[in-house]
Every structure is written in structure tokens, then in C-alpha cells.
Amino acid sequence: MGNLVAMARNTNRSGASESRSNRAPWWSKLRRSTSDLDADELRQRADALGATPVVQCMVGERCTVVGVLKTVTLRPRQGVPAVVAELYDGTGTVNLVWLGRRRIAGIDPGRSLSAQGRINERAGARVMFNPRYALMRGTDD
Fold first, then answer.
1. What is the rounded distance in angstroms from the CA atom of residue 87 to the CA atom of residue 76?
2. Which residues contact 8 (CB under 8 A, 6 or more apart)?
3. How far apart are CA 81 and CA 85, in angstroms?
4. At 75, which CATH number?
5. Between residues 19 and 112, which one has the greater pLDDT?
6. In a domain, 127, yes or no
7. Is 20 contained in some domain?
8. pLDDT: which is higher, 86 or 29
9. Distances in Å between the alpha carbon of 30 and those of 24, 26, 34, 36?
């Protein structure tokens, strides 16, 4: 009788048995979008490398972030050339700005990299000026 009560408590309305752990069932990944799965993968990779998630970086704080470059553009700032790269880590984006540069070899959209610098905020967006960076191979590292 005790087993029937325990079994009834672990059964949801549809009659399917629920797991005691909080892990999502294997089929839950089938319902998620590719961008959600990519974001999860980027977050896990950043965690494994000891990087700070972009959403946790506070203005004025030195942070190391790891992610993928979404866009790379040349935007002159007050007459000075500047390469601006938008880095996405699965939690948010930060604009990496290199002043005085027109092009940086290896800084291309889709490239994985690690950047270290002080977080600023410009027009509501997180910005890192002249960060130290290291190019990474890809998501298999």
C-alpha cells in the first residue's frame, strides 16, 4: 500500500511518472530552438574556462568574457578609426572596441575569443575599450 501512495505522489495528471531530480527529460531539447541550444553551449563553455557571464559584469569591473563575435564593423569615433566587435556569450552581449585600428587579423564574425578588460556603458550597452584578447579555435576546445 505504501508503494502505491508513493507512486501516486510521483505521477502527474497525464499519468506519466515524474523524476525526483530537476533534470529535464531528453525530449525537452527537441522543443527548444537552435539559438537556445547554442546559447546553452556558449554558457557552458564560458563556465568551463572560468569566464564571467556578460550579464554579471558590472560597470567599472575588470572581467574576462568568452564568446562568439556576432558582428565586426569599422566605426570612426570622433575622427579616429575604431574596430567594433559584438561578442555574445549566451547570456548577453558586450561591444569590444579597439581604437585607432581599421582592421585586426582574426577578428571576424563567427570567431570565438576570450577578452579581458574593464566594462563601461555607452548608450545602454556594455562596452570594453581596447581589451586584451585571445583567439580561440571553436566550440570544440
1. 19
2. none
3. 13
4. 2.40.50.140
5. 112
6. yes
7. no
8. 86
9. 11, 8, 9, 11
Cα four-point dihedral sign 42, 45, 47, 49: negative
Q: Please check whether residue 82 is in contact with residue 75, taking contact to mean a CB–CB distance below 8 angstroms.
A: yes
* Residue scoring higher pLDDT (52 or 85): 85
What Cα–Cα distance (Å) separates residue 42 from each residue in 53, 54, 134? Answer: 10, 12, 16
pLDDT in tens, 23-79: 666 655 566 666 666 666 767 777 777 788 988 999 999 999 999 999 999 988 788
- Whether 13 maps to a domain, the answer reads no
For residue 120, how far is the Cα from the chain centroid? 18
**What is the tally of structural domains in the chain?**
1
Rounded Cα distance between 77 and 130, Å, is 13
Per the DSSP assignment, residues forming a β-bridge with 63 are: 117
CA-nearest of 75, 133, 127, 79 to 107 is 133
